[in-house]
Amino acid sequence: MSQDWSDEELLAAVRAYKEMARLAATGEPYSNIYYKKLVTSLNRTETSVESCLQKISAVLCEGSQSVIDDLKLGCVDEGFKARILAVYQDGDHHLGFSKSKAKISQLLNDKNILVNRNRECFSSVGIDYAIFEPTIAGLKKSILDATAPVRTLFELEEFHDFSSQGQGGIHKKIKSAFFVGNSIFSETSVSLYRPKTKSGDPRMWFRGLREFAKPEDQIAIVVFDNALYLFNFSENDFSYVESEFKELRKINLSALMDVDNFSKVIDGQALISKQKDQYPQENNSVVDFLSRYFFSKNSVADELLNKLRIIAKKPIVAKAVGDTAIGMAIEAALGIPANSSKKPDYQGRIEIKSGRGAKNRSTLFAQVPDWLHPEGKYRSSADVLDDFGYKRLDDFKLYCTVSTQKSNSQGLFFVYDESADLLIEKHNKLGNVVVWTGKTLRNRLLEKHAETFWINARSTVIDDVEYFELISVTHTKKPLINQLLPLIKAGIVTMDHLIKRKGGGKASVSEKGPLFKIKKKDLALLFPAPQVYLLR
C-alpha cells in the first residue's frame, strides 16, 4: 500500500479527507462527493481509496487531529505513516501538490467541456431536454428529486404533471424509458411519485440507473413518443449529432422532392416508409434514435417547406388587397381554409407569417388588454376608440402604432413596469389607458409561435393585379419568451391598434388587434438559431 500510492495521489487523498472531516464536524454530508471524486480522478478502485482513507484516519486519530468518526481505522506501517504526516503538515507546499492539483483540475475541466459541448450540440439542432444530477445518496437509496427544469419539461411535453398527482404509492406512475449512449440502447422504466412524507416533493427513479450513471454525472432527459430517453453528457461525446442532423434533413427533403404530384405531398405519411429506408444504417444507437426523433419533429416542417417550394415556382395572384393579402394568397395556394382560430395555421402545429420585403414588420400575435386590471382605466375597445380615435370619411378609427420610444400622434405610448411585470399603455395627458400582464404576453407568444415559417415575398403588379413571388422562408422554433418584454421596452417589438366603427353613431366596433409586431431582421433576438431556406 505504501509503495503504490504516489506523493501526488496521497496529497489528493489527504486534502479530500480534511474537507470531509470538516463537513462531518458540522453535520453536513461529506463522503458522497469527495469519495467518488478520488475514485474517478485517480483512476483507483473503491476498495483502494477506502483503505487509504482508513489509514489516514488512523494516523490523524493517533495525533489527536480532527477525524471522521464513522470511518474505520486502518492498519498502517511506519513508512506510510510518515508520508501521511508529511503531506498533512506541509499541505499545499508539499512537493507533489501542484502536479496532483493540475491532474484533478484538468480532469474536472475536461468533463465540464464535454458537458457544455453536448448541451450546445443538442440545443443547436432543436432537441429540448432537462438535466438532472444523481448524488451518491440518491443512487444508494433509489431516489431522485424531480427538479423544476425536469417538471417543466414533463409538463410542456405533456408527459407527466406532478402538481395533479396524489401522494403515496397508490398514485405512483410507471412509464417507459431508455438509456442511450454511443454503444448502448437499453429499455428501462421510470417511477414517478410523490411520497406521503413532508409536502410530497416530486420524485422519480429509473430502474438500472446505477449502471448507467455515476454520482454527479450530468444526465439529459429527452421526451419522445411518451417515453423518456436518457443521455449521459458526462461520459459520451455527442458532438457528431449536428452533422447527423444535417444529413437526416437532406434525406428527408430529398424524399419529399421526389414527389412530383402536389396532392401526394399533402399526405406526408405516404413518404414515411421511403424516408426510413434512406436513413444511414450505422450500428449506432444514438443515430438510430435521432432518425426517429428528427423525422417525427421535422416531418411536418419539411412537408410544408416542400409545398412552398412547389408553389414558389410561379407568382401567386392576390386574393384581396391590403396588408393581409399576401397571407391570404399563400394560405389559399397551400389549401388552408380561412379561419379565426388562435391555433397555428398549418396542421395546428406551424404558424405561417408573410410580408412584402424585409422592411415590413411581421405580426407576432394579437392580444387584447386585461380589461379588468385595476391599473387600467378603460374597459373596452369602444371606450379606447371614443377617447383617442379620429374621423376618416364615414368611419371612426384608431389605426396607430404604439411604442416605448415616443408617444404617437394620438398621444399614446408604452411603459414597462418591471417590478410589477406589467406593460402599460399610457396617454401623455390622461395617464394609464390599458394594461397587459407580462405572463399573458409571454404565454400568448409561446402558444402562437412554438414553430413558425416567416415567408419573405416580392410584390409585383401586372395589369392592375398584384402578384407575389415567394423568395425565402425563415424557420423558427420555441421563442425566448423571457426576452419579449425587454424587446418591447427597447422598442423592437411594437403594437398596432386597429379599431374601427363604421358609419359613426352607435354602430358596432371591430377590433383586429391589438397586434404585437417585430421586424423580420430582428427575429434572431426572439428566436434561437433561425434557419433560412431559399424557395427559388
Strand content: 15-25%
Oligomer: single chain
CA radius of gyration is 31 Å
CATH topology of the largest domain: Alpha-Beta Plaits
CATH class of the largest domain: Alpha Beta
User: Overall pLDDT, averaged?
Assistant: 81
Please, how many helices? 16
CATH architecture of the largest domain: 2-Layer Sandwich
Instruction: Please give the largest β-sheet.
Output: 7 strands, mixed
Structural class: alpha+beta
Name the helicity range.
Answer: 25-40%
End-to-end C-alpha gap: 73 Å
Q: Please list the strands of the largest sheet in the order they lie side by side.
A: 1-6-7-3-4-5-2
Domains counted in the coordinates: how many? 4
The low-confidence parts are 92-101, 258-283
Number of strands: 21
| CATH level 4 superfamily of the largest domain | MvaI/BcnI restriction endonuclease, recognition domain
The coarse overall form would be elongated
Q: Topology of this protein?
A:
Elements: H1 7-25, H2 31-41, H3 46-62, H4 78-90, H5 97-124, E1 130-132, H6 136-141, E2 144-145, H7 148-156, E3 173-180, E4 185-193, E5 203-206, H8 209-212, E6 219-224, E7 227-232, H9 241-257, H10 262-266, H11 272-277, H12 285-311, E8 316-317, H13 325-334, E9 351-356, E10 361-366, H14 381-388, E11 390-392, E12 395-402, E13 412-417, E14 422-427, E15 431-437, H15 438-448, E16 451-462, E17 465-477, H16 484-489, E18 493-501, E19 509-511, E20 515-519, E21 531-534
Parallel strand pairs: 3-7, 9-16
Antiparallel strand pairs: 1-6, 2-5, 3-4, 4-5, 6-7, 8-17, 10-20, 11-12, 12-18, 13-14, 14-15, 16-17, 17-21, 18-19, 18-20
Helix pairs in contact: 1-2, 1-3, 1-4, 1-5, 9-12
